[in-house]
């Protein structure tokens, strides 16, 4: 394979990987996934909330959703 062809294929693969990784996820879907993982680990007494980016406050950010317009926060109760 020639170097230009290899470069084009490598670039295409990189772009496809980044697009799949950066695909926006709805907040409800992400919240359900994270809650399932926490429940599997036996974590109790927590609250996951989707908030606007500028409303995070003191909560721990555990994800980004709705195309980066919101943050999913975790707070122990």
What distinguishing features does this structure have?
disordered N terminus, 2 helices, alpha+beta, three-stranded antiparallel sheet, 77 residues
- Give the beta-strand count: 3
Please identify the structural class as seen in this structure: alpha+beta
Radius of gyration equals 18 Å
Q: Which series of helices and strands comes N to C?
A: HHEEE
Strand order of the largest sheet: 1-3-2
Sheet with the most strands?
Answer: 3 strands, antiparallel
Oligomer: single chain
State mean pLDDT (0 to 100 scale). 81
| Helix count, DSSP H or I runs of 4 or more residues | 2
Q: What would your notes on this structure say?
A:
The protein has a domain at 24-76. Helix content is 43%, strand content 26%. It has helices at residues 3-21, 27-40, and strands at 46-52, 60-65, 70-76. The chain has a three-stranded antiparallel β-sheet with strand order 1-3-2, covered by helices on one side. The longest helix has 19 residues, at 3-21. It is flat, with a radius of gyration of 18 Å.
Q: What's this, in brief?
A:
The chain is an alpha+beta fold and 77 residues long. It is built from two helices and three strands.
Topology (elements, then pairings):
Blueprint: H1 3-21, H2 27-40, E1 46-52, E2 60-65, E3 70-76
Antiparallel strand pairs: 1-3, 2-3
